[in-house]
Amino acid sequence: MTAVTVLRGTVLAMTDHPVPHAELPSDYAKVLTLLKERVRSAQIRAHRAVNSELIKLYWSMGKTILDRQSAEGWGAGVIARLGDDLRREFPDMRVLSRSNLEYMRRFAAAWPGAFPQQPVGEMPWG
User: What are the tens digits of pLDDT across the range 80-93?
Assistant: First the structure.
């Protein structure tokens, strides 16, 4: 940890030692706890937002596949190819396999129409 000494906006010194406990303000522990709580709260909100977006994405992908199967007769071979092409484009997203695309299709079939805009935290499994 690097400690920085600043006077009137000018950095006077930088050391690799933190400020000794005796020199910390009396409310330091309280402020540290408050900031930790803010970080954790923001992390939770961010995770929920990401999860909500992924659920909407998976539903919309499933809906697209479902619609194409109905309109154009897409079969298992097209879904497998779609999974391969998507994984090639997004190699870090392991969820884009053929079997998961089929789960997305089933998800969309279970909730026809627009997917409800329910926050993840209010869902039964959230």
Answer: 999 999 999 999 99
Concatenating the DSSP letter of every residue in 73-107 gives: ---HHHHHHHHHHHHHH-TT-GGGSHHHHHHHHHH
Cα 32 to Cα 37: distance, rounded to the nearest angstrom: 9
Report yes or no: 101 and 82 within 8 Å, Cβ to Cβ. Answer: yes
pTM: 0.68
Q: Are 5 and 12 in contact (CB under 8 A)?
A: yes
Distance linking the first and last C-alpha atoms of the chain? 37
C-alpha of 34 from chain center: 24
Question: Cβ(79)–Cβ(102) under 8 Å?
Answer: yes
Return the SS3 of 60. Answer: helix
